[in-house]
Specification:
It contains six helices and seven strands, in the order αβαβαβαβαβαββ. It is of the alpha/beta class. The protein starts with 5 loop residues before the first helix and ends with a strand. The structure holds S-adenosylmethionine.
Length: 196
Amino acid sequence: MGFLSVLSFAHKLAAQRLQPGGIAIDATAGTGADTLFLAKTAGPRGRVFAFDIQKEALALTRQRLEKEPDETLAPISLHLGSHSLMKSTIPAEYHGKISVIMFNLGYLPTEQSDKQVITQTESTLTALEAALDLLLPGGVITVVLYPGHEGGSQEAAAVEAWASALPPRAAQAIMYRGIQRSDAPYLIALERKKRL
Ligand SMILES: C[S@@+](CC[C@H](N)C(=O)[O-])C[C@H]1O[C@@H](n2cnc3c(N)ncnc32)[C@H](O)[C@@H]1O
């Protein structure tokens, strides 16, 4: 049967916390799979914000969303820009009320995409700090990391070090990882604890 894939495990953690009417962020829209999942889970009374720095990614996300009946999805705002700006982009009324924030790092997974355009350690860490601030207590951040490509292993190590150093009273951090292949993708997830 096998264990859940890293992506399925991220969706499972997200689905446990995101209720109909809830608010969620896809920090790396890519082809829109996570954006669609969040919009379906939050439903028409919810709200979803998605970020990507590539027009191509947002176009793919839009195409994917257009195939779904509108009335089944949360209203979605697609932002062309870095997730490191999420705090200033997302209206203040939503701050502290986000149930789920998903990051899927690395490059846009399409045949034609430029594989040099990848998430960068510095902006990823800035975005993670902002994400933690935006979360509802009990909300989660999921981060899928790709140590198998150039730049990805440094980014993964930096995210792991950042998450490990968080005070447990601020957030609980876990890792979901196959341990037989050091280059396989893995997941770090954080649950926000009560406000300090
Ligand atoms: C692995 S893909 C995401 C996959 C996506 N979740 C899906 O379902 O297809 C990573 C995405 O992050 C985007 N990205 C890179 N740097 C970014 C940044 N600073 N802010 C937001 N998105 C970024 C890339 O353009 C790429 O589309």
